[in-house]
Amino acid sequence: MFRKVLVANRGEIAVRVMRACEELNIGTVAVYSEADKDSGHVRYADEAYNVGPARAADSYLDHEAVIEAARKADADAIHPGYGFLAENAEFASKVEDADGITWIGPSSDAMESLGEKTKARTIMNEAEVPIVPGTTDPVTDPAEVTEFGEKHGYPIAIKAEGGGGGRGMKVVWDESEVEDQLESAQREGEAYFDNDSVYLERYLENPRHIEVQIVADQHGNVRHLGERDCSLQRRHQKVIEEGPSAALTDELREEIGEAARRGVAAADYTNAGTVEFLVEEEPGRDGPLGPDTNFYFLEVNTRIQVEHTVTEEITGIDIVKRQIRIAAGEEIDFEQDDVEIDGHAMEFRINAENAANDFAPATGGTLETYDPPGGIGVRMDDALRQGDELVTDYDSMIAKLVVWGEDRDECIERSLRALREYEIAGIPTIIPFHRLMLTDEEFVQSTHTTKYLDEELDETRIEEAQEQWGGDTGDGASEDDDETVEREFTVEVNGKRFDVELEEHGAPAIPAGDVEAAGGQASRPEPAGGSSGGETEIQGEGETVDAEMQGTILDVDVKEGDEVAAGDVLVVLEAMKMENDIVASRGGTVTQIAVEEGQSVDMGDTLVVLE
Hints:
The protein has 16 helices and 30 strands. With about 600 residues, the protein is an alpha+beta fold. The strands form eight sheets. It has an eight-stranded antiparallel beta sheet, sandwiched between helices. A five-stranded parallel beta sheet has the order 3-2-1-4-5. Strand 2, helix 2 and strand 3 form a beta-alpha-beta unit. Helix 4 packs antiparallel against helix 5 and helix 13 packs across helix 16. The longest helix has 17 residues.
């Protein structure tokens, strides 16, 4: 077994992995960016290392910085959690090649073959797993998309090879959209996955999203741990997940589970993973979907999933500990027939967003009150404590509430009780939205599809729920205490983090900033691509067009000297996995472009100057 594991992630998933390590008597190492120096996962770890500034590309995504931190800590394994580097085959390969460090996850070869969607489709097809009609080779020409549409009909999904969760996927509803949507999908694929290859699939208009949890060891054993229903989605992002699915008969769930197991075995896959399927819904059905229902392979997530907690609650199997044991070479010690599903569980993503304002993410704030629920059947996965400042540089999910019941009805009732108990003040959350969904007829009857939130739910109901149950969301401001000054210093020695707490009464505030060790600024491993450089100097007296949210520049549609009219698109900004066109509010001449493709920007950063 490992001595010490570095968790290459942040927030609740980092703490979740560390807790599993603690139970296995394994030491834990955190990595953190400057924005996260006071975050919960840093507090929880046995030791912590700074890997760079807030920008993820210069910290959590910096291969060399993370591996160097593992070497400094003398860690003998790296667990990636989910997101960031979790499905990066290149990073996994570097860890595999690193002396004395084990990658806790599938092999880089398996990640590459299943991570690239056309390869995965080929593997699944050969394993007789049903796949949606589509291409098994990348497409580059709009004519190929048009030809596919003529053969299979519209709508068509254009998907990035390395995409997932809706990112890099564009839907073509008719021939007139082919060129623009192909270009958009390629652009997102290049920006986020360094791969502009895309493929085509027939787009299913009203499916359910069913996924199967898999664990596989290095001795040829593959087990599935049942399915989860993730059909309640907003813009392809899961919001509430549950298991088992109330929409499937036992015969159909067994067919889907065995298909997942067969496909993973064919790919020589090891460790934990999730095989996702689209299941055709039958409008107006009487009872659950039977064994004759069509289902199609969607993709494999070669990592732990956000919603792995649902499966843990209904099977009693700690999936993260299984990941660690499998990576250490241990054999799975149970047969497929030993897997039993007990009761029903739901997971609620607690996002710092205002659901009534198009799920806009919070731009700041302090957890003035943080009092999570408890009681039988209630689990909290978080890394928060009262008084924490909200970190807005990354994903908006701050916690996960997981609820178990003996059946789905009890699970819903217990979930309502837990959500009523959950007290958060100082920032907005989507707790009111969750409470609404648990009284929504379509969700309660489990007849909703992946399109329900985007196309059918009356948005005024969300606004009413937010008004009724939204509570104190704060204004992002903080108040100074004139009488008592408390300061938590961060001291770094050779990149390793130590915390020092100081409290003074009746003293002036201590200037912010990290203490320097041995008279000099603590160093960190340099980013693989070098330093990120300074800010762009804004010149001239013109009107600035600023970023309204934190995100990444996907495309710059103008150049200096261009004449633009009101409403013209200036740049395309990706935020929360959605493309946002930044348009000119008035006509004028572009005198300066302050950003470039692939650049990360914060809210308020200047993008373009117009005169």
